Amino acid sequence: MNNRTRYIKKMDTNESKHDRKSELKAFDDTKSGVKGLVDAGVSKVPQIFISPPDTYSNSNTGQFIFPVIDLQDMDSHDQINRKKVIEKVRDASETWGFFQVINHGVPCDVMEEMIRGVCSFHEQDTDIKKQWYTRELTKRVVYNSNFDLYNAPATNWRDTFFCIMAPNPPSPEELPPICRDIIVKYSEEVKKLGRSLFELLAEALGLNRNYLNEMDCGEGLSVVCHYYPACPEPELTLGASKHADDGFLTLLLQDHIGGLQVLHRNHWVDVPPTPGALVVNIADLLQLISNDKFKSVEHRVLANRVGPRISIACFFSTFFLEASRLYGPIKELLSEENPSKYRETTIQEYAAYFTAKGLDGTSALQHFRL
């Protein structure tokens, strides 16, 4: 009897006497993730995945229009057009913390190939995937299910592999062969777009165009590839619990299925899958250095009977580098009327706190607030 069969059997016989810790370990030991459960024919959501009942409150997605910003010609010499783009970026960053971008320069065929590559990785034989399965998040290529498996209140219905692609990317041999070339190609495109977005965000803060790039906000890049299998009971669990991101900025590529929701004015608003678009969101460290001018907003992913859903989140942060640089609210943004709201911190300290806390529905920013 293999680990996966043993886990399913244990889950069926132990439903009444729930021992979360041993069930988590049994699930982890399979190294086959949520996809392994689905492949084994599970018809009920195991207890470890069931979310608290209040998770689904305030769901109202019909009354808001999610912001979409056209980046066409943003690098041209047409300063009037660029100012309009900057105003839209400023408004979305202050009020939503999220927006979609179109005409962003990343070729559609590269995005489509990236989605196919991620799907192929997760759908290859488990014995092949297992060589990357680990809970050591300091490694440059990691595959597992739920980075916070042993800390979070509920396990999420998703599997993930991620790779650190800047500033010190893995050698090609370290990357999974099935999606190696497209990860490298896609990462290069995202890095270029990231530099442009940090320029727009700096100008939206009233700073010099190069300010955020010179602070190394775009120096680190992690590419995080999620696989959300079809769920037999999507009303009981989540693809990703409510959380905000811990870096400076996130760029998300999502497929056509949807499920991403943003908490806006106390309502959960759908982020509609838009062909050719990328989702951009402000992350915690950008809220911190902007002294709350830009908002890192909580979001979640619903589980779905349809699947798999594929998404690729690119996080701009150097949390994996040993660096002593302190980040606090930018001095140029402070005044007597707007004093510093956060203490200074290193990226490593922030990321360590975020990871230890897990996706528990609370903001890591509060821990650093003065």
TrEMBL record:
Pfam families: 2OG-FeII_Oxy, DIOX_N. GO terms for biological process: coumarin biosynthetic process; response to molecule of fungal origin. Residues 1-23 are annotated as: Disordered. GO terms for molecular function: 2-oxoglutarate-dependent dioxygenase activity; L-ascorbic acid binding; metal ion binding. Coiled coil: none annotated. It comes from Solanum lycopersicum. Belongs to the iron/ascorbate-dependent oxidoreductase family. Residues 9-23 have a biased composition (Basic and acidic residues). Residues 219-323 form the Fe2OG dioxygenase domain. Keywords: Iron, Metal-binding, Oxidoreductase, Vitamin C. The gene is LOC101249199. It comes from the Eukaryota. This is Fe2OG dioxygenase domain-containing protein.
